[in-house]
Amino acid sequence: MNTFQDLGLNQDLLQAINDLGFVTPSDVQQKTIPTLLQQETDLVALAQTGTGKTAAFGFPMLQKIDVDSRTTQGLILSPTRELCLQITNEMQLYGKYLKGLNVTAIYGGASITDQASKVKKGAQIIVATPGRMKDMISRRLVDITKIEYCVLDEADEMLNMGFYEDITDILSHTPEDKSTWLFSATMPQEVATIAKKFMHQPVEITVGTKNQGSDQVSHEYYLVNARDRYSALKRLADANPDIFSVVFCRTKRDTQKIAEQLIEDGYNAAALHGDLSQNQRDLVMKSFRNKQIQMLVATDVAARGIDVDDITHVINYQLPDEIETYTHRSGRTGRAGKTGVSMVIISKSEQRKIKSIERIIKKEFIKKDIPNGMEICEVQLMSLANKVHNTEINHEIDGYLDNINELFEDTSKEELIKKFFSVEFTRFFNYYQKAADLNVSGDDRSDRSERGASQGSGNSTRYFINVGKRDGFSWTSLKDFLRECLQMGRDDIFKVDVMDSFSFFNTETSDMPKVLEFFTDFKHEGRFVNVEVSEDKGKQHSRGRSKGKDRGKRKESTGNFFDASKRDKRSDKSSKKDKRKSKSGLERPRRSRR
Ligand code: ADP
Ligand code: MG
Questions:
Q1: In total, how many domains does the chain have?
Q2: Per-residue pLDDT, 93
Q3: Is residue 574 one of the residues assigned to a domain?
Q4: Which atom of ligand 1 is nearest to the CA of 51?
Q5: How far apart are the CA of 108 and the centre of ligand 2, in A?
Q6: Residue ID of nearest Cα to ligand 1 atom 13
Q7: Cys-Cys crosslink for 42: which of 4, 202, 331, 362, Cβ 3.0 to 4.6 Å?
Q8: Span from the CA of 127 to the centroid of ligand 1 (angstroms)
Q9: Domain end marker among 337, 372, 407
Q10: pLDDT tens across 407-439, in order?
Q11: Spacing, Cα 47 to ligand 2 middle (Å)
Q12: Is the model's pLDDT at 567 over the cut of 80?
């Protein structure tokens, strides 16, 4: 039984299926469609996202309802407006040859009167989000007392979102003898409870292993210092030039912040979270579908509605609080027969969470290294080469060729290729040539020494300044003071540490001449403020001026000054520092919009 015809679907539906280009029914469709067509039964179907569940309940429902009647016979509840619209759209496509079919979507954030009038015209099928549905029932704008089929789609997500009460309420307005079909990707306790409470001896169908991630998805994790999270994200994006991804953050704030940073750094990114208006969310989703957005930064709740098939990567910028949520996240990729990658950026303290997730998805993570700068340059170069190679020649260019040929008359093919690619390559090369290794080894001690050693080295310079707490400075006020003096941005001055009578701070090394020049013979409130590059221990002791007796305590120079706890606190400020990087000499090469 390998065709839709074998499943017992009628000609009108087969015709539509043919139009849609579906050739073989998916597993869940093979298992559910014949059952639902032949029996009036309750059903629980567990299958991963992207396995074709909409058609699994959609085809049987469309075949079973009476399109000549204007009575509402089928109700489909789904967690979000986005899904609601998607299901409605799919149902209309499946039923395009059913004359008189009216599938109406009911969801919040749009005119309730418009929706009510559509229902009134005789909607045989209503696709609804629970909140709005309940609202319309209480206002008597819908009548579901005669429905024969009720689908709870993405039941786990609906319950996750707190719709239990609403669903119970809605179901209390439906007839006892209807058939209830529950579809879910996972089977948490709440779903089992609903099944028990509202269903009678349901047929159970499981496709794949329960709770298991799709086989199409590979899982990778990257271990970095917390402060390097953002830089790591950028590298992962740069190492995958054709990335089309959802980046998951834990909070709305982080979501917004990361999206803004990515945009600032030249990526095609956008945020999707609950603080956006429905209109804004729609616009974002539209751009994402059209692939104008390559990196959609989203919260878990907002992402529930994302049902886009060709997402190449899911990036867990932060792991979810509830480990179960990981399955939902990674299920956004590897859909409709395609392969996908779910990447997790973690710091050391989260390593054990990976083990817990592995137990849930029953798959192992691959520990991978954040690509280094030169690897990224190579990927970008080859990506460009392939793009050029596959570009169709636009003959509009013919008219200009004489002039161009003239310019390159004496250039050999070899030289021309080198020049051509250098244009693009140089941007990445300049950015990445001195980029640090972001990877952290699994071993605690080596991590600490790496962090210590890297502090103040590389692209940033550490300075000593002869003012401190006694002069009324805190680290924030000193930072503000320096920023003002030097006319620098919020994140251009970092690692500010204020001692009693002196302090330290860092800037990008490229800013060093400016800093030193400014503080040559600089007086503040009548006294000289002296800034020097903080060097190794030996040299510190010979430093001139300032309060001699404190100087010996300056045990720190470029590196291991902070104690571990302090350092950890600082690493939480990763985003600030990352931003600073992008604003300074290390500006990421701007991406050309596609
Ligand atoms: P789920 O609800 O399980 O997450 P969907 O019903 O949204 O999955 O289907 C995922 C995608 O697969 C949709 O784009 C749908 O049109 C497509 N699809 C569904 N069934 C088939 C099939 N038999 N052959 C090819 N594509 C299909
Ligand atoms: Mg679905």
A1: 3
A2: 96
A3: no
A4: 3
A5: 19
A6: 52
A7: 202
A8: 17
A9: 372
A10: 899 989 899 888 888 887 888 888 888 888 888
A11: 10
A12: no
Residue 588: which of 302, 267, 314, 296 has the closest Cα?
267
The residue to which tokens 């298992």 are assigned:
31
Q: Are 546 and 445 in contact (CB under 8 A)?
A: no
Let me know whether 157 and 235 are in one domain: no
Helix or strand holding residue 419 (H, E): helix 413-432
Residues 250-273 as b or e (16 or more Cβ within 10 Å = b):
bebebbbbbbebbbebbbbbbbbb
Give CA 60 to chain center in angstroms: 35
Helix, strand or coil, per DSSP, at residue 273: coil
Residues 186 and 221 in one domain: no
- Residues 338 and 367 sit within 8 Å (Cβ to Cβ): no
Please check whether residues 292 and 338 belong to one and the same domain.
Answer: yes
Query: Is the model's pLDDT at 542 over the cut of 60?
Result: no
Inside any domain, residue 328: yes
The phi, psi pair for 2, rounded to 5°, reads: -125, 10
Which residues span the domain enclosing 125?
A: 4-206
DSSP states along 363-388? SPPEEEPPPPHHHHHHHHHHHHHHHH
Q: Kindly identify the ligand whose nearest atom is closest to the C-alpha of 49.
A: 1
Res 337: pLDDT: 67
Ligand 2 center from residue 72 Cα (angstroms): 22
Taking CA 399 as the corner, what is the angle to CA 395 and CA 400, rounded to the nearest 5 degrees?
105
Same domain, 90 and 186: yes
Same domain, 267 and 367: yes
Could you tell me if residue 380 is inside a domain? no
Q: How confident is residue 523, by pLDDT bands cut at 50, 70 and 90?
A: confident
Of the ranges 260-264, 375-379, 493-497, 537-541, which one carries the lowest mean pLDDT score? 537-541
365 close to 354: Cβ distance less than 8 angstroms: yes
The Å distance, Cα 411 to ligand 2 centre, comes to 57
125-128 sheet: strands from edge to edge? 103-106, 125-128, 74-77, 149-152, 179-184, 43-46, 203-206
Both tokens assigned to 273: 């979270």
21-27 long-range contacts (CB < 8 A, ≥24 apart) are 22/55, 25/52, 25/55, 26/51, 26/52, 26/55, 26/56, 27/51, 27/207, 27/208
Q: What is the largest CA-CA distance in the chain?
A: 96
- Say yes or no: 540 and 493 in one domain: yes
Given this model, what pLDDT does residue 385 score? 87
Cα–Cα dist 81/48, whole Å = 20
Q: Whose Cα sits closest to atom 14 in ligand 1?
A: 309
Residues 364, 456, single domain; the answer is no
Which stretches of 21-65 are DSSP H helices? 27-38, 53-64
Residue list, ligand 1 pocket, CB within 6 Å: 22, 24-26, 29, 47, 49-55, 307, 309, 335-336
> Domain containing 246 — which CATH number?
3.40.50.300
Could you give the C-alpha distances from 393 to 416, 419, 570, in angstroms and in order?
Answer: 18, 20, 52
Report the sign of the C-alpha dihedral through residues 284, 290, 295, 301, in that order.
Answer: positive
Least confident range of 228-242, 279-293, 551-565: 551-565
Contacts of 282-287 with C-beta under 8 Å, sequence gap 24+, read 285/82
